[in-house]
Protein backbone atom coordinates (compact mmCIF):
# COMPACT_ATOMS: atom_id res chain seq x y z
CA UNK A 1 0.00 0.00 0.00
CA UNK A 2 1.35 3.47 -0.81
CA UNK A 3 0.68 6.56 1.25
CA UNK A 4 0.66 10.28 0.52
CA UNK A 5 1.45 10.92 4.16
CA UNK A 6 2.30 8.95 7.27
CA UNK A 7 1.83 10.46 10.72
CA UNK A 8 4.33 8.43 12.72
CA UNK A 9 4.34 7.44 16.40
CA UNK A 10 0.87 8.79 17.14
CA UNK A 11 -0.66 8.23 20.55
CA UNK A 12 -4.09 7.91 18.97
CA UNK A 13 -7.19 8.69 21.01
CA UNK A 14 -10.69 7.95 19.81
CA UNK A 15 -13.97 8.01 21.73
CA UNK A 16 -13.39 4.35 22.52
CA UNK A 17 -9.67 3.63 22.68
CA UNK A 18 -6.15 4.90 23.11
CA UNK A 19 -3.40 3.11 21.17
CA UNK A 20 -0.07 3.74 19.50
CA UNK A 21 0.03 3.65 15.72
CA UNK A 22 1.26 5.19 12.52
CA UNK A 23 -1.53 6.78 10.53
CA UNK A 24 -1.39 6.19 6.79
CA UNK A 25 -3.18 8.77 4.66
CA UNK A 26 -3.99 8.66 0.96
CA UNK A 27 -6.32 10.92 -0.99
CA UNK A 28 -7.24 12.85 2.15
CA UNK A 29 -8.49 9.77 3.96
CA UNK A 30 -7.08 7.45 6.58
CA UNK A 31 -6.22 4.18 4.82
CA UNK A 32 -4.16 2.43 7.50
CA UNK A 33 -3.65 2.47 11.26
CA UNK A 34 -0.82 0.16 12.20
CA UNK A 35 2.63 0.08 13.69
CA UNK A 36 5.65 0.71 11.41
CA UNK A 37 3.89 1.55 8.15
CA UNK A 38 6.26 1.41 5.19
CA UNK A 39 6.75 4.66 3.28
CA UNK A 40 6.92 4.75 -0.51
CA UNK A 41 9.23 7.03 -2.52
CA UNK A 42 6.67 9.87 -2.58
CA UNK A 43 5.39 9.54 0.99
CA UNK A 44 5.69 12.57 3.27
CA UNK A 45 6.12 11.95 6.99
CA UNK A 46 5.17 13.84 10.13
CA UNK A 47 6.51 12.64 13.46
CA UNK A 48 3.95 12.86 16.23
CA UNK A 49 6.67 11.67 18.64
CA UNK A 50 4.32 9.86 20.99
CA UNK A 51 2.02 12.84 21.49
CA UNK A 52 -1.75 12.58 21.68
CA UNK A 53 -3.45 12.58 18.29
CA UNK A 54 -7.20 13.15 18.33
CA UNK A 55 -9.82 13.56 15.60
CA UNK A 56 -10.17 17.11 14.29
CA UNK A 57 -12.83 18.91 16.28
CA UNK A 58 -16.39 19.41 15.13
CA UNK A 59 -17.73 22.71 16.43
CA UNK A 60 -21.41 21.94 16.11
CA UNK A 61 -22.71 25.27 17.35
CA UNK A 62 -21.14 28.46 16.07
CA UNK A 63 -22.33 31.61 14.37
CA UNK A 64 -20.31 32.86 11.42
CA UNK A 65 -21.30 35.71 9.10
CA UNK A 66 -24.90 35.29 10.21
CA UNK A 67 -27.01 38.26 9.09
CA UNK A 68 -28.07 40.35 12.10
CA UNK A 69 -30.59 43.13 12.49
CA UNK A 70 -28.71 46.32 11.46
CA UNK A 71 -26.56 47.89 12.69
CA UNK A 72 -25.32 44.75 14.47
CA UNK A 73 -22.69 42.90 12.46
CA UNK A 74 -20.70 39.74 13.13
CA UNK A 75 -16.93 40.20 13.11
CA UNK A 76 -16.10 36.82 11.56
CA UNK A 77 -16.95 35.67 8.08
CA UNK A 78 -16.20 32.19 6.76
CA UNK A 79 -12.60 33.13 6.02
CA UNK A 80 -11.64 34.37 9.47
CA UNK A 81 -13.97 32.03 11.36
CA UNK A 82 -12.67 28.85 9.74
CA UNK A 83 -9.06 30.07 9.95
CA UNK A 84 -9.51 30.49 13.66
CA UNK A 85 -11.18 27.08 13.92
CA UNK A 86 -8.26 25.37 12.13
CA UNK A 87 -5.66 26.97 14.42
CA UNK A 88 -7.59 25.68 17.44
CA UNK A 89 -7.87 22.10 16.15
CA UNK A 90 -11.38 22.27 14.71
CA UNK A 91 -11.75 20.89 11.19
CA UNK A 92 -15.52 20.95 10.79
CA UNK A 93 -17.88 23.74 11.76
CA UNK A 94 -21.67 23.73 11.72
CA UNK A 95 -22.93 27.32 11.74
CA UNK A 96 -26.52 28.42 11.14
CA UNK A 97 -28.38 29.45 8.03
CA UNK A 98 -31.01 31.62 9.67
CA UNK A 99 -34.47 32.29 8.31
CA UNK A 100 -35.71 35.82 8.96
CA UNK A 101 -39.29 36.21 10.16
CA UNK A 102 -41.32 36.83 7.01
CA UNK A 103 -38.48 35.46 4.90
CA UNK A 104 -37.79 32.21 3.12
CA UNK A 105 -35.68 29.48 4.67
CA UNK A 106 -34.55 28.36 1.24
CA UNK A 107 -33.35 31.90 0.46
CA UNK A 108 -31.40 31.96 3.73
CA UNK A 109 -29.60 28.75 2.75
CA UNK A 110 -28.82 29.99 -0.76
CA UNK A 111 -27.42 33.21 0.70
CA UNK A 112 -25.40 31.27 3.27
CA UNK A 113 -23.80 29.07 0.60
CA UNK A 114 -22.64 32.25 -1.12
CA UNK A 115 -21.18 33.56 2.11
CA UNK A 116 -19.15 30.37 2.56
CA UNK A 117 -18.09 29.76 -1.05
CA UNK A 118 -14.40 30.27 -1.70
CA UNK A 119 -13.75 31.36 1.87
CA UNK A 120 -13.90 28.35 4.17
CA UNK A 121 -10.62 26.66 5.03
CA UNK A 122 -12.19 23.84 7.07
CA UNK A 123 -15.20 21.72 6.15
CA UNK A 124 -18.66 22.93 7.04
CA UNK A 125 -22.25 21.82 7.24
CA UNK A 126 -25.28 24.01 7.93
CA UNK A 127 -27.84 23.89 10.68
CA UNK A 128 -31.00 25.80 9.88
CA UNK A 129 -32.75 28.30 12.14
CA UNK A 130 -36.52 28.09 11.78
CA UNK A 131 -37.89 31.49 12.77
CA UNK A 132 -41.14 31.43 10.82
CA UNK A 133 -42.72 28.00 10.26
CA UNK A 134 -45.18 29.00 7.54
CA UNK A 135 -47.02 26.33 5.53
CA UNK A 136 -44.49 26.91 2.74
CA UNK A 137 -41.63 26.21 5.13
CA UNK A 138 -43.26 23.18 6.78
CA UNK A 139 -44.58 21.57 3.62
CA UNK A 140 -41.83 22.38 1.14
CA UNK A 141 -38.70 24.21 2.19
CA UNK A 142 -37.79 22.30 5.33
CA UNK A 143 -38.38 18.75 4.01
CA UNK A 144 -36.49 19.62 0.83
CA UNK A 145 -33.56 21.15 2.68
CA UNK A 146 -33.38 18.12 4.98
CA UNK A 147 -33.27 15.88 1.91
CA UNK A 148 -30.44 18.04 0.58
CA UNK A 149 -28.30 17.47 3.67
CA UNK A 150 -29.28 20.17 6.16
CA UNK A 151 -30.66 17.66 8.65
CA UNK A 152 -30.71 19.72 11.84
CA UNK A 153 -32.30 22.97 12.88
CA UNK A 154 -32.54 25.29 15.84
CA UNK A 155 -35.64 26.82 17.36
CA UNK A 156 -35.63 29.71 19.81
CA UNK A 157 -37.93 30.19 22.78
CA UNK A 158 -36.61 33.75 23.21
CA UNK A 159 -35.36 36.75 21.15
CA UNK A 160 -38.20 38.70 19.52
CA UNK A 161 -36.85 38.31 16.00
CA UNK A 162 -36.45 34.53 16.27
CA UNK A 163 -38.71 33.04 18.92
CA UNK A 164 -41.47 30.53 18.29
CA UNK A 165 -44.60 29.95 20.36
CA UNK A 166 -45.01 26.49 21.90
CA UNK A 167 -47.61 25.54 19.28
CA UNK A 168 -45.18 26.43 16.51
CA UNK A 169 -42.45 24.41 18.16
CA UNK A 170 -44.80 21.41 18.26
CA UNK A 171 -45.51 21.79 14.55
CA UNK A 172 -41.82 21.85 13.74
CA UNK A 173 -41.06 18.95 16.09
CA UNK A 174 -43.74 16.92 14.35
CA UNK A 175 -41.88 17.53 11.12
CA UNK A 176 -38.55 16.64 12.77
CA UNK A 177 -40.06 13.33 13.81
CA UNK A 178 -41.39 12.56 10.37
CA UNK A 179 -38.24 13.62 8.53
CA UNK A 180 -35.80 12.30 11.16
CA UNK A 181 -34.05 15.63 11.57
CA UNK A 182 -32.31 16.76 14.76
CA UNK A 183 -34.13 19.56 16.56
CA UNK A 184 -32.09 21.95 18.72
CA UNK A 185 -33.80 24.23 21.21
CA UNK A 186 -32.65 27.47 22.83
CA UNK A 187 -34.50 27.28 26.13
CA UNK A 188 -35.16 30.54 27.99
CA UNK A 189 -38.53 31.99 28.99
CA UNK A 190 -38.97 35.06 26.81
CA UNK A 191 -41.80 36.77 28.72
CA UNK A 192 -40.03 36.34 32.05
CA UNK A 193 -36.87 37.90 30.62
CA UNK A 194 -38.89 40.82 29.21
CA UNK A 195 -40.57 41.39 32.58
CA UNK A 196 -37.32 41.31 34.56
CA UNK A 197 -35.56 43.49 32.00
CA UNK A 198 -38.27 46.14 32.18
CA UNK A 199 -38.04 46.24 35.98
CA UNK A 200 -34.25 46.53 35.90
CA UNK A 201 -34.31 49.35 33.34
CA UNK A 202 -37.00 51.20 35.32
CA UNK A 203 -34.68 51.05 38.32
CA UNK A 204 -31.85 52.51 36.26
CA UNK A 205 -29.88 49.26 36.28
CA UNK A 206 -28.48 49.21 32.77
CA UNK A 207 -24.87 47.99 33.10
CA UNK A 208 -23.77 44.72 31.42
CA UNK A 209 -23.85 42.81 34.71
CA UNK A 210 -27.63 43.18 34.81
CA UNK A 211 -27.86 41.06 31.68
CA UNK A 212 -27.15 38.08 33.92
CA UNK A 213 -29.74 39.14 36.50
CA UNK A 214 -32.38 39.53 33.80
CA UNK A 215 -31.99 35.86 32.78
CA UNK A 216 -31.57 33.98 36.07
CA UNK A 217 -31.40 30.19 36.23
CA UNK A 218 -35.16 29.63 36.79
CA UNK A 219 -35.86 31.28 33.42
CA UNK A 220 -33.69 28.65 31.75
CA UNK A 221 -34.92 25.84 33.99
CA UNK A 222 -38.57 26.47 33.15
CA UNK A 223 -37.97 26.65 29.42
CA UNK A 224 -35.80 23.53 29.54
CA UNK A 225 -38.60 21.66 31.23
CA UNK A 226 -41.10 22.99 28.69
CA UNK A 227 -38.90 21.94 25.77
CA UNK A 228 -38.59 18.46 27.29
CA UNK A 229 -42.36 18.28 27.66
CA UNK A 230 -42.95 19.25 24.02
CA UNK A 231 -40.43 16.61 22.97
CA UNK A 232 -42.13 14.01 25.17
CA UNK A 233 -45.59 14.76 23.76
CA UNK A 234 -44.37 13.91 20.27
CA UNK A 235 -41.75 11.31 21.14
CA UNK A 236 -39.07 13.13 19.19
CA UNK A 237 -35.46 13.56 20.33
CA UNK A 238 -34.21 17.10 20.93
CA UNK A 239 -30.91 18.72 21.83
CA UNK A 240 -31.01 21.42 24.48
CA UNK A 241 -28.25 23.82 23.43
CA UNK A 242 -25.88 25.86 25.61
CA UNK A 243 -26.93 24.51 29.02
CA UNK A 244 -25.48 26.88 31.63
CA UNK A 245 -25.73 25.15 34.99
CA UNK A 246 -27.32 22.99 37.65
CA UNK A 247 -30.97 23.98 37.38
CA UNK A 248 -31.28 23.08 33.70
CA UNK A 249 -29.10 20.01 34.22
CA UNK A 250 -31.51 18.73 36.90
CA UNK A 251 -34.35 18.88 34.38
CA UNK A 252 -32.33 16.97 31.80
CA UNK A 253 -31.34 14.34 34.36
CA UNK A 254 -34.97 13.95 35.33
CA UNK A 255 -35.96 13.52 31.68
CA UNK A 256 -33.23 10.94 31.08
CA UNK A 257 -34.39 9.08 34.17
CA UNK A 258 -37.84 8.84 32.62
CA UNK A 259 -36.29 7.35 29.50
CA UNK A 260 -36.86 10.45 27.37
CA UNK A 261 -34.59 11.07 24.42
CA UNK A 262 -33.01 14.37 25.44
CA UNK A 263 -29.51 15.40 24.35
CA UNK A 264 -27.63 18.29 25.89
CA UNK A 265 -24.86 20.66 24.90
CA UNK A 266 -22.71 22.94 26.99
CA UNK A 267 -20.00 25.46 26.12
CA UNK A 268 -16.68 26.66 27.57
CA UNK A 269 -18.25 29.88 28.89
CA UNK A 270 -20.20 27.80 31.42
CA UNK A 271 -17.00 26.10 32.58
CA UNK A 272 -14.67 29.10 32.68
CA UNK A 273 -16.70 32.33 33.11
CA UNK A 274 -19.04 33.55 35.83
CA UNK A 275 -21.49 36.36 36.44
CA UNK A 276 -18.54 38.29 37.92
CA UNK A 277 -17.05 38.52 34.42
CA UNK A 278 -20.19 40.36 33.25
CA UNK A 279 -20.33 42.57 36.30
CA UNK A 280 -16.78 43.94 36.18
CA UNK A 281 -16.68 47.72 36.62
CA UNK A 282 -17.72 49.90 33.73
CA UNK A 283 -18.79 48.51 30.41
CA UNK A 284 -16.03 45.87 30.11
CA UNK A 285 -18.37 43.05 31.14
CA UNK A 286 -20.13 43.47 27.78
CA UNK A 287 -17.40 41.23 26.39
CA UNK A 288 -18.94 38.30 28.28
CA UNK A 289 -22.60 39.05 27.58
CA UNK A 290 -24.12 35.89 26.13
CA UNK A 291 -27.31 33.92 26.65
CA UNK A 292 -27.87 32.03 28.81
CA UNK A 293 -25.38 34.00 30.93
CA UNK A 294 -22.47 32.39 32.77
CA UNK A 295 -23.52 31.52 36.35
CA UNK A 296 -21.18 30.99 39.32
CA UNK A 297 -18.36 28.68 40.45
CA UNK A 298 -20.76 26.15 41.98
CA UNK A 299 -22.60 25.87 38.67
CA UNK A 300 -19.32 25.47 36.80
CA UNK A 301 -18.59 22.46 38.98
CA UNK A 302 -22.02 20.98 38.27
CA UNK A 303 -21.35 21.33 34.55
CA UNK A 304 -17.93 19.64 34.90
CA UNK A 305 -19.54 16.82 36.85
CA UNK A 306 -22.23 16.41 34.21
CA UNK A 307 -19.56 16.24 31.50
CA UNK A 308 -17.74 13.55 33.44
CA UNK A 309 -20.81 11.43 34.12
CA UNK A 310 -22.05 11.48 30.54
CA UNK A 311 -25.05 13.79 30.79
CA UNK A 312 -23.76 16.02 28.01
CA UNK A 313 -23.56 14.85 24.44
CA UNK A 314 -21.43 17.71 23.08
CA UNK A 315 -19.31 20.72 23.97
CA UNK A 316 -19.60 23.46 21.35
CA UNK A 317 -18.27 27.01 21.35
CA UNK A 318 -21.44 28.96 20.51
CA UNK A 319 -18.93 31.32 18.88
CA UNK A 320 -20.90 34.51 18.27
CA UNK A 321 -18.32 37.10 17.22
CA UNK A 322 -18.97 40.76 17.95
CA UNK A 323 -16.15 43.24 18.35
CA UNK A 324 -16.03 45.05 21.67
CA UNK A 325 -14.85 48.45 20.47
CA UNK A 326 -17.15 48.71 17.49
CA UNK A 327 -20.37 50.64 16.79
CA UNK A 328 -21.66 47.46 15.08
CA UNK A 329 -20.62 45.31 18.03
CA UNK A 330 -20.73 45.49 21.80
CA UNK A 331 -20.47 49.31 21.83
CA UNK A 332 -23.49 49.53 19.63
CA UNK A 333 -23.92 52.92 17.99
CA UNK A 334 -20.52 54.02 19.35
CA UNK A 335 -21.93 54.24 22.88
CA UNK A 336 -22.24 51.99 25.90
CA UNK A 337 -25.77 50.72 25.38
CA UNK A 338 -28.03 49.48 28.19
CA UNK A 339 -27.65 45.70 28.57
CA UNK A 340 -30.68 44.66 26.48
CA UNK A 341 -29.06 46.27 23.42
CA UNK A 342 -25.64 44.64 23.76
CA UNK A 343 -25.27 42.00 21.02
CA UNK A 344 -25.33 38.57 22.68
CA UNK A 345 -22.44 36.20 22.24
CA UNK A 346 -18.75 35.62 22.76
CA UNK A 347 -15.98 34.30 20.51
CA UNK A 348 -14.59 30.81 21.13
CA UNK A 349 -13.95 28.77 17.97
CA UNK A 350 -10.18 28.67 18.50
CA UNK A 351 -10.10 28.21 22.27
CA UNK A 352 -12.77 25.48 22.69
CA UNK A 353 -10.54 22.44 22.14
CA UNK A 354 -7.42 23.70 24.00
CA UNK A 355 -9.48 24.84 27.01
CA UNK A 356 -11.14 21.45 27.30
CA UNK A 357 -7.98 19.45 26.66
CA UNK A 358 -5.96 21.45 29.18
CA UNK A 359 -8.55 21.90 31.93
CA UNK A 360 -10.47 18.69 31.29
CA UNK A 361 -8.04 15.98 30.21
CA UNK A 362 -4.78 17.17 31.77
CA UNK A 363 -6.41 17.84 35.14
CA UNK A 364 -7.99 14.38 35.17
CA UNK A 365 -11.58 15.65 35.12
CA UNK A 366 -12.22 13.91 31.79
CA UNK A 367 -10.60 10.97 30.07
CA UNK A 368 -9.10 11.69 26.70
CA UNK A 369 -11.76 9.40 25.20
CA UNK A 370 -14.46 11.58 26.77
CA UNK A 371 -12.73 14.65 25.35
CA UNK A 372 -12.83 13.12 21.87
CA UNK A 373 -16.48 12.12 22.26
CA UNK A 374 -17.50 15.58 23.46
CA UNK A 375 -15.52 17.62 20.92
CA UNK A 376 -15.89 15.47 17.81
CA UNK A 377 -17.41 11.98 17.78
CA UNK A 378 -20.77 12.66 19.39
CA UNK A 379 -21.39 15.69 17.19
CA UNK A 380 -20.73 13.52 14.14
CA UNK A 381 -23.36 11.07 15.40
CA UNK A 382 -25.84 13.81 16.34
CA UNK A 383 -25.68 15.50 12.98
CA UNK A 384 -25.23 12.67 10.51
CA UNK A 385 -21.51 13.07 9.74
CA UNK A 386 -20.22 9.81 11.24
CA UNK A 387 -17.95 8.01 10.32
CA UNK A 388 -16.65 10.41 7.67
CA UNK A 389 -15.99 12.91 10.46
CA UNK A 390 -15.42 12.66 14.19
CA UNK A 391 -13.14 9.64 14.47
CA UNK A 392 -9.77 8.24 13.45
CA UNK A 393 -10.57 5.08 11.55
CA UNK A 394 -9.78 3.52 8.21
CA UNK A 395 -12.03 5.25 5.67
CA UNK A 396 -12.54 8.42 7.69
CA UNK A 397 -11.35 11.82 6.50
CA UNK A 398 -7.79 12.48 7.69
CA UNK A 399 -8.80 15.33 10.00
CA UNK A 400 -6.65 15.26 13.10
CA UNK A 401 -4.86 17.22 15.77
CA UNK A 402 -1.43 16.54 17.27
CA UNK A 403 -1.38 17.95 20.78
CA UNK A 404 1.46 19.85 22.37
CA UNK A 405 1.12 19.27 26.09
CA UNK A 406 4.68 19.99 27.08
CA UNK A 407 4.60 23.69 27.87
CA UNK A 408 2.41 26.49 29.14
CA UNK A 409 0.42 28.40 26.53
CA UNK A 410 -1.02 31.75 27.57
CA UNK A 411 -4.13 32.80 25.65
CA UNK A 412 -3.58 36.21 24.04
CA UNK A 413 -6.04 37.67 21.61
CA UNK A 414 -3.19 38.99 19.46
CA UNK A 415 -2.19 35.35 18.86
CA UNK A 416 -5.66 34.17 17.88
CA UNK A 417 -6.82 34.07 14.28
CA UNK A 418 -10.41 35.24 14.50
CA UNK A 419 -11.39 38.79 13.55
CA UNK A 420 -12.68 39.73 16.99
CA UNK A 421 -10.89 42.39 19.06
CA UNK A 422 -10.93 40.37 22.29
CA UNK A 423 -11.15 36.94 23.85
CA UNK A 424 -12.93 36.40 27.16
CA UNK A 425 -10.04 34.11 28.13
CA UNK A 426 -7.25 36.71 27.81
CA UNK A 427 -4.26 35.82 30.00
CA UNK A 428 -5.46 32.33 30.95
CA UNK A 429 -2.60 29.84 31.03
CA UNK A 430 -3.25 26.47 29.42
CA UNK A 431 -1.08 23.37 29.34
CA UNK A 432 -2.22 22.24 25.88
CA UNK A 433 -2.44 23.66 22.39
CA UNK A 434 -2.61 22.06 18.95
CA UNK A 435 0.87 21.51 17.55
CA UNK A 436 -0.60 20.62 14.17
CA UNK A 437 -4.01 20.37 12.54
CA UNK A 438 -4.70 18.30 9.42
CA UNK A 439 -7.76 18.73 7.25
CA UNK A 440 -8.18 15.80 4.87
CA UNK A 441 -4.43 15.22 5.01
CA UNK A 442 -3.46 18.89 4.47
CA UNK A 443 -1.68 20.85 7.20
CA UNK A 444 -3.89 23.84 8.06
CA UNK A 445 -2.08 24.79 11.29
CA UNK A 446 1.58 23.99 11.89
CA UNK A 447 1.79 25.13 15.49
CA UNK A 448 2.96 28.61 14.49
CA UNK A 449 0.96 29.67 11.47
CA UNK A 450 -2.26 29.11 9.65
CA UNK A 451 -1.28 27.16 6.55
CA UNK A 452 -4.70 26.50 5.05
CA UNK A 453 -6.26 28.06 1.98
CA UNK A 454 -9.60 29.83 1.81
CA UNK A 455 -11.82 27.71 -0.41
CA UNK A 456 -10.32 24.35 0.54
CA UNK A 457 -13.18 23.72 2.99
CA UNK A 458 -15.98 21.61 1.55
CA UNK A 459 -19.70 21.74 2.21
CA UNK A 460 -20.84 18.55 3.95
CA UNK A 461 -24.25 17.10 3.34
CA UNK A 462 -25.41 15.54 6.58
CA UNK A 463 -27.25 12.22 6.72
CA UNK A 464 -30.45 11.91 8.71
CA UNK A 465 -28.95 11.22 12.13
CA UNK A 466 -29.69 7.86 13.74
CA UNK A 467 -29.89 9.73 17.06
CA UNK A 468 -32.89 11.69 15.73
CA UNK A 469 -34.94 8.50 15.47
CA UNK A 470 -37.97 8.44 17.76
CA UNK A 471 -38.17 5.66 20.34
CA UNK A 472 -41.53 4.31 19.25
CA UNK A 473 -43.14 3.78 15.88
CA UNK A 474 -46.37 5.68 16.32
CA UNK A 475 -45.62 7.02 19.77
CA UNK A 476 -45.99 10.49 21.08
CA UNK A 477 -49.25 12.33 20.83
CA UNK A 478 -50.99 9.50 19.02
CA UNK A 479 -50.56 7.43 22.18
CA UNK A 480 -51.64 10.28 24.46
CA UNK A 481 -54.79 10.75 22.38
CA UNK A 482 -55.35 6.99 22.15
CA UNK A 483 -55.57 7.26 18.37
CA UNK A 484 -53.87 3.93 17.89
CA UNK A 485 -56.09 2.05 20.35
O1 LIG B 1 -25.59 34.76 23.39
C1 LIG B 1 -25.56 33.93 22.52
N1 LIG B 1 -25.48 32.65 22.81
N2 LIG B 1 -25.62 34.31 21.24
C2 LIG B 1 -25.63 33.46 20.15
C3 LIG B 1 -27.00 33.08 19.74
C4 LIG B 1 -27.51 31.89 20.48
O2 LIG B 1 -28.55 32.01 21.09
O3 LIG B 1 -26.90 30.84 20.46
ZN1 LIG C 1 -29.05 30.00 21.46
ZN1 LIG D 1 -25.67 30.04 19.43
ZN1 LIG E 1 -0.51 33.03 13.04
UniProtKB/TrEMBL annotation:
Superkingdom is Bacteria
Q: Mind telling me which Pfam families this protein's record contains?
A: Amidohydro_1
Entry keywords, A to Z: Hydrolase, Metal-binding
Tell me its cofactors: Zn(2+)
User: Gene3D superfamilies this protein is in?
Assistant: Metal-dependent hydrolases, Urease, subunit C, domain 1
Q: Does the keyword Glycosyltransferase apply?
A: no
Family in the record: Belongs to the metallo-dependent hydrolases superfamily. Hydantoinase/dihydropyrimidinase family.
The entry's protein name is: Dihydropyrimidinase
- Species annotation: Pseudaquabacterium pictum
